[in-house]
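As a warm-up, study this chain.
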Amino acid sequence: MAKGQIKQKQDTIKKETFESLCAIQCTREEIAGVLNVSDSTLYRWCKETYGTDFDTIFRQKRENGKASLRRSQWKLAEKNPTMSIWLGKQYLRQRDNIEVEHSAQNGVLGELIGALNQAKENK
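Now compare it with the structure written out below.
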């Protein structure tokens, strides 16, 4: 592809579209495909537009998507108890309490538990 054609392709890339695709965590190949450009054109465009490489700008712009997803989850939690419980477990260290009952069986373990219980009773 001639330099004029590459520049023309770069001019068709819309910054807002690129940033939106990063926010929804599209891959480099998907972004290039949607923008109808090659990887090398996308890399050059990032360098010219942002002054840095694709990987760096992608990491920065995908954070907007993470924040948007988090905001959606919090809104959903207002109406959805399952989401509310999940967020509580993730951020508030809330847990389901599961009670486990052990039954003593014959053998050393049973004898040990019996001895401990008898020692408690004798106190």
